[in-house]
Amino acid sequence: MTSWIISDLHLSAQRPAVTQAFLHWLEVEVAHAESLYILGDFFEVWVGDDVLNDMQHGAEFLPVVQALRKLSDSGVKLYFMHGNRDFLIGEDFAKASGLQLLTDPTLIQAGNKRILLSHGDALCTDDTAYQQFRSQVRNLQWQRAFLAQSLAARIAFAEQARNQSAQNKAVQPIDIMDVNQSAVEQLVIEYEYPEMLLHGHTHRPDVHALEIDNHRCQRWVLGDWHDTAVVCRLDDDAIQLVTLQLEE
Length: 248
Ligand code: LP5
Ligand code: MN
What we know:
The chain is an alpha/beta fold. The protein is 34% helix and 24% strand. The strands form two sheets. Strands 4-3-2-1-10-11 form a six-stranded mixed sheet, covered by helices on one side. A five-stranded mixed sheet has the order 5-6-7-9-8, with helices on one face. α4 (91-97) links the parallel β3 and β4 (100-102). The site of ligand LP5 has 23 residues, from α5 and α7.
């Protein structure tokens, strides 16, 4: 049986073609699969699950929730790990979509390989401004206070945060926005040398060979979704990165 691992779709009403391509791909590929792992940044921003109950702002997400739910009801196992854009996805969204939330990182077994799954942002330790922001917004107390604000206020904060992030990214050295090699090595050691570490976030799809304490490991990086997408396909006897063509 086949499983798929994807990340960084950045679904939003501003890019309806990507959502359409994703929904189509679910029907033609994932409907026959065993499982689908979504490793974060599935949505461009997520300001709280209550958006699903809002007529105005929730409408864009409903087709996605319904499509996931249909797959889940038909027996496909769905898993979701938070990214830096959708860390506020909670149990209400998970329940509505029929998926299971995973902590970052999570170790899975595929055939004879152990694969450590992560969004990837926690590995970008050279990006100290981001790591500071990350510790703040991943704090449960901060999240409770944020979610207690009105939907309109949260949307406005998210927009400001997006603008500030875009400005930061435009001026900061590109290298600090990639994973830090020691952070990768530490994680691989902590998880007892899995054969693969697989993540997204950096939008730099590739396979990197590592050797840590005489253990061979590969770091697989997924790509984001625009006119193409780089996803991982797991079969009983093969693991590969696959490029999907999203536009005709
Ligand atoms: O996301 P991307 O690709 O632009 O860059 C990321 C890092 N930035 C972020 C921030 C997100 O984009 C913001 C949107 C999240 C919405 C979530 C819900 C609402 C939360 C609202 C919070 C107030 O993740 C970027 C990294 C880059 O990846 C590469 O790894 O460099 O990190 C930064 O740019 C660091 C900045 O310090 C982030 C600053 C965010 C500003 C927060 C304050 C704004 C609130 C204003 C309140 C008055
Ligand atoms: Mn990300």
